[in-house]
Amino acid sequence: MKNTAFIASAVLASQAAAKAIVGTNIGGWMVLEPWITPSLFYRFLGKTHSEGVGVDSYTFCEALGPVEGNAVLRAHWDSWVTEDHIKALADRQVEVVRLPIGDWTLTPYGPYVGCTDGATEKIEWFLDTCAKYGLKVLLDVHALKDSQNGFDNSGKASDF
User: What is the pTM of this model?
Assistant: First the structure.
């Protein structure tokens, strides 16, 4: 009886593996998280809250303002994901890429106004480039206004 259960489990696992989708995540690109992109947040080390400290996407834009924040974000967007990265994923037989975005991406509000200019165009580039290499994209509205969980991955951490 034990062998039959083991064989049945092995057959089911084999069938599931044959149908599994190979995917990955492009975290830290459009929704900033210091544990993924610590170098973006080093500029705030040693500062006090009153001096402006970024700990998430919201406070990053708030502290740097629209001009400096946008310049830093555009440089980040251009280097964090390139066409070579996308091609390498396709070469490794990745089928789908999850792209977390904030609700502010399409309609900026608060400190995102100006700071995230160009995000929509960069996402369109990403979608087009993934399509070029046969990758599917799962757009994940990963962060909502005022935070859904109080952590940096929601765009706005609370109680820091």
Answer: 0.80
